[in-house]
Amino acid sequence: MVDQSFPPSRNAALSSLAQFAARGAHTYASGRNTDAGPDQPSAVSRLSPYVRRRIITEHEIVATVLTHHSLQAADKFIQEVLWRTYWKGWLEMRPAIWTRFLADRDLQRDAASDRRAISDAENGLTGIEGFDDWSRELIQTGYLHNHARMWFASIWIFTLRLPWALGADFFLRHLIDADPASNTLSWRWVAGLQTAGKTYLATKANIARYTNGRFAPDGLAREAIALREPPVEPPRALPTVAPYDARQPAVLLITDEDMHPESIFPDLSVFKAARVVVDPNLLWGDNARHFAHAAAADTVSRIASQVDGPVDLADRLDAKSLADAAEAAGVKRIVTPYAPVGPVADGLAHLALDLASRGIILDQVRREWDARFWLYAAKGFFPFKDRIPSVLRECGLT
Ligand SMILES: Cc1cc2nc3c(=O)[nH]c(=O)nc-3n(C[C@H](O)[C@H](O)[C@H](O)COP(=O)(O)OP(=O)(O)OC[C@H]3O[C@@H](n4cnc5c(N)ncnc54)[C@H](O)[C@@H]3O)c2cc1C
3-state class of 277 per DSSP? Predict the structure, then answer.
């Protein structure tokens, strides 16, 4: 059951951003590692449920923070925002890492010899201080502080010695911001798979310090030996997308991967109809489902008066009914914001084939932000980070 900390609307997202922006420099940098507890004031922004579904965008977040601070002063926060972009770009070039995770999860789920240990870990019954509290907090609120996510993943892998893919799946089933790229690659990073050989070890002293003494668990693993895996394929080129042509009449399709069409398409009145689809089968858990459903209704109400035709809400990426909508609108083209690697991207790939067999083209439009930043996401974060100031300038942010 999700608490009301994340009202699922764009106005709520903008209001959270406005409240946070002035704290995006020193206050964030010095306090971001502290997790004072679920109901306590925090230095972090708690914007992830919104930016995950692009109810607000990375561009807007950075632009707003830069109205209060210089790029240098807000450096740490902006870098964190760019971690999301980087992970997405990295996975976009290595979709096999996502499918490998899914296969590993299924394998581990079937093979798990100690189901009791997994169930205890998920239900906060391990007896490990902090860890059990974070399990419950995650299930109840749909959110965990970044540091708690790191401690949790580290204890799951190195103290409890449970399969990392089942831990990543547990997060995906409960996080409101559940995200294929940020979640999978962060778990891989903790496990020593992402940066080969480099692991993250949670310690009693670090947990006590950054939870303000709330937790000081005993019995944690004293070393974190990196997990191993078969070699990762070299990166593929970014999939190409056709440039958006506003002169071609079309129907607009919005998925829960990107719910702010107003900032991609300069004029929504060129669309002859629009459909917002949140398919519950493409989301892992109820926390994310409830949030995305309500956010979809918010999107419909925002754009209804701007589109030159009917705007509706659906719960399936269904080719037949979309083709019917296109036919009723007298168009042969459906346009949708690009979906990065994950279930919605897979759903769109199938949809494109189905629509093509009905004579309708599905065009995905990639945001300028992704198109520019992803070019530098093929390698590690540090070379990517060096590009941040110049790419922000290219995006009109200085
Ligand atoms: C094991 C593990 C699993 C994670 N799973 C997810 C997930 O499923 N979905 C998800 O959105 N994030 C995930 N993260 C990243 C991060 O923990 C959250 O994005 C962050 O805690 C969100 O809280 P916030 O908005 O208050 O962050 P802030 O500290 O205020 O950061 C601002 C924004 O920067 C981005 N950001 C910050 N830290 C990270 C990071 N480490 N990686 C990527 N982006 C970041 C987010 O968009 C965030 O909203 C995971 C991290 C770990 C260690």
Answer: strand
Indicate the average pLDDT of the chain. 96
Confidence band for 118, pLDDT divided at 50, 70 and 90: very high
Nearest residue to 142 (alpha-carbon basis) of 46, 18, 256, 42: 46
261 CA to centre of ligand 1 in angstroms: 23
Percentage with pLDDT > 90 across the chain: 94
Nearest atom in ligand 1 to 48's CA? 49
The Å distance, Cα 193 to ligand 1 centre, comes to 19
150 CA: nearest ligand 1 atom: 53
- Let me know if the fold of 102-210 is the same as that of 250-365: no
Distance 48 CA to ligand 1 centre (A): 6
> Which residue, judged by its Cα, is nearest atom 49 of ligand 1?
48
Is there an atom of ligand 1 within 6 Å of 35 CB?
Answer: no
Q: Above 70 in pLDDT, residue 383? A: yes
- 250-365: which CATH topology? Rossmann fold (3.40.50)
pLDDT tens digit string along 132-185?
999 999 999 999 999 999 999 999 999 999 999 999 999 999 999 999 999 999
* Residue ID of nearest Cα to ligand 1 atom 43: 84
The full set of domain ranges for the chain reads: 10-91+373-394, 102-210, 250-365
User: What CATH code would you report for 102-210?
Assistant: 1.10.579.10
- Is 137 in contact with 214 (CB distance < 8 Å)? no
b vs e for 345-380, b when ≥16 Cβ sit within 10 Å of the residue's Cβ? Answer: bbbbeebbebbeeeebbbbbbbbebbbbbbebbbee
181 lines ligand 1 (CB under 6 A): no
CA of 46 to the centre of ligand 1 (A): 9
